[in-house]
C-alpha cells in the first residue's frame, strides 16, 4: 500500500533539502566525483589555488541556486511528469553540489557566505515560474542550464592549467547541464527571447562577481 504523505511530511522534506543544500559537506552524491584518484593536479602555487577556489565557489553557489530553483518549481508545477523531471534533475544537481564542495575542501577554500540569500531568491523565482505554467517553468530551466553551461566552459578555460581535478568535475557538470536543458525543451519548455536571456545573464554576473571572494 502506497503511503500518502501529509503536508507536514512535505514540509519536513523541504526543510531537510534546505539544510542539505546550505550546510557544507551535508549533500550526499549518488555518483562518485569525476575527480578520481587517478586524476592528479600539477603543483599549484597559492595564487593559483585561491583563483581555482574562487571559481569553484561560484560553481558551488550556482548549484545551490539550481537546487533551490528545482525545489521551487517542483512545489508549484502542475503536471506530475514535470514534477518528476524536476526531482530527477535536482538529484543530479545534488551530485554537482557535493562534488564542488569536496573540491573546495581540497583547495582549502570555503563555500560562499551569500548562499542563503541566493537560495531564497532562486527558490522564489522557481516557485513563481512553476505557478505561471509548466511551459514557462521548463523554458526557464532550459535557459538557466544553457547559461550555466556557458559559465562552465569559461571556467574550464580560466582554471590554472595544472588544476586537472576541478576541470574533470566541471566537464561532467557541463554534460549533465546540457542534458537537463535538452530534456526541458523536449518536454515542451518555451524558448525564451534574447532580451529575457540578457536579463538572466546580468543577474548571473552579479552572483559571480560577489561570490568569487565572498
From TrEMBL:
<feature type="binding site">
    <location>
        <position position="96"/>
    </location>
    <ligand>
        <name>Fe cation 1</name>
    </ligand>
</feature>
<comment type="function">
    <text>Catalyzes the hydroxylation of 2-nonaprenyl-3-methyl-6-methoxy-1,4-benzoquinol during ubiquinone biosynthesis.</text>
</comment>
<feature type="binding site">
    <location>
        <position position="63"/>
    </location>
    <ligand>
        <name>Fe cation 1</name>
    </ligand>
</feature>
<keyword id="KW-0560">Oxidoreductase</keyword>
<feature type="binding site">
    <location>
        <position position="93"/>
    </location>
    <ligand>
        <name>Fe cation 1</name>
    </ligand>
</feature>
<feature type="binding site">
    <location>
        <position position="93"/>
    </location>
    <ligand>
        <name>Fe cation 2</name>
    </ligand>
</feature>
<dbReference type="GO" id="GO:0046872">
    <property type="term" value="F:metal ion binding"/>
</dbReference>
<feature type="binding site">
    <location>
        <position position="180"/>
    </location>
    <ligand>
        <name>Fe cation 2</name>
    </ligand>
</feature>
<keyword id="KW-0503">Monooxygenase</keyword>
<keyword id="KW-0472">Membrane</keyword>
<feature type="binding site">
    <location>
        <position position="145"/>
    </location>
    <ligand>
        <name>Fe cation 2</name>
    </ligand>
</feature>
<keyword id="KW-1003">Cell membrane</keyword>
<dbReference type="InterPro" id="IPR047809">
    <property type="entry name" value="COQ7_proteobact"/>
</dbReference>
<dbReference type="Pfam" id="PF03232">
    <property type="entry name" value="COQ7"/>
</dbReference>
<keyword id="KW-0408">Iron</keyword>
<keyword id="KW-0831">Ubiquinone biosynthesis</keyword>
<dbReference type="GO" id="GO:0008682">
    <property type="term" value="F:3-demethoxyubiquinol 3-hydroxylase activity"/>
</dbReference>
<feature type="binding site">
    <location>
        <position position="177"/>
    </location>
    <ligand>
        <name>Fe cation 1</name>
    </ligand>
</feature>
<dbReference type="InterPro" id="IPR009078">
    <property type="entry name" value="Ferritin-like_SF"/>
</dbReference>
<comment type="pathway">
    <text>Cofactor biosynthesis; ubiquinone biosynthesis.</text>
</comment>
<dbReference type="InterPro" id="IPR011566">
    <property type="entry name" value="Ubq_synth_Coq7"/>
</dbReference>
<protein>
    <recommendedName>
        <fullName>3-demethoxyubiquinol 3-hydroxylase</fullName>
        <ecNumber>1.14.99.60</ecNumber>
    </recommendedName>
</protein>
<comment type="similarity">
    <text>Belongs to the COQ7 family.</text>
</comment>
<keyword id="KW-0479">Metal-binding</keyword>
<dbReference type="GO" id="GO:0006744">
    <property type="term" value="P:ubiquinone biosynthetic process"/>
</dbReference>
<feature type="binding site">
    <location>
        <position position="177"/>
    </location>
    <ligand>
        <name>Fe cation 2</name>
    </ligand>
</feature>
<dbReference type="InterPro" id="IPR012347">
    <property type="entry name" value="Ferritin-like"/>
</dbReference>
<dbReference type="GO" id="GO:0005886">
    <property type="term" value="C:plasma membrane"/>
</dbReference>
